[in-house]
Amino acid sequence: MTAVAETEPYLNKWTEHPANFNRRDLLTYALGIGCDEPQFIYEKNKQFAAFPTYPIVLGFKGDQQDVVNFPSKAMQRGPKKPPMRGVKVGLDGERYLEVVKPLPKKGCEVVLR
To answer: Nearest to residue 83, comparing CAs of 3, 2, 15, 1?
Structure first.
């Protein structure tokens, strides 16, 4: 018989986290994932923009300007996870991303919810 964790106390418990980024972060990310498109790796390109998946890493980085440990302080401030007996690791297998508004090219401060 499989034990089922009680999840109700953990659902819809959103937290808010400050995060920020700058142009250097956008360039480092694009180069780090192997991008070779000038609009993402050259800040003087007329169409310079954040790589579309960049916002996903803001939850890992938080408001730190230096290299962060894993898990970072920003990740540790997140919502509590339900206890799951016997589970030692988790796999983040899928994310959905919808670009509603492009990120500012020069960076900004945001609040993640």
So the answer is: 3
pLDDT tens digits, residue range 36-51? 999 999 999 999 999 9
Half-sphere exposure in the Cβ direction for 21 (13 Å, CA): 26
User: Looking at the DSSP assignment, which residues form a beta bridge with residue 111?
Assistant: 18
DSSP for 42-95, written as a single string: -TTSTT----TTGGGGHHHHTT-SS---SS-HHHHTSPPPPP-TT---------
Whether 20 contacts 108, CB under 8 Å: yes
Q: Residue 95 burial by CB count (10 A; 0-12/13-18/19+): exposed, middle or buried?
A: exposed
> pTM higher than 0.85, yes or no?
no
The single residue listed with the structure tokens 């991008």 is 35
- Please name the helix (run of DSSP H) or strand (run of DSSP E) that holds residue 25, with its range, or none: helix 23-32
Per-residue exposure over 63-76, b if at least 16 CB sit within 10 Å of its own CB, e if not: eeeeeeeeeeebee
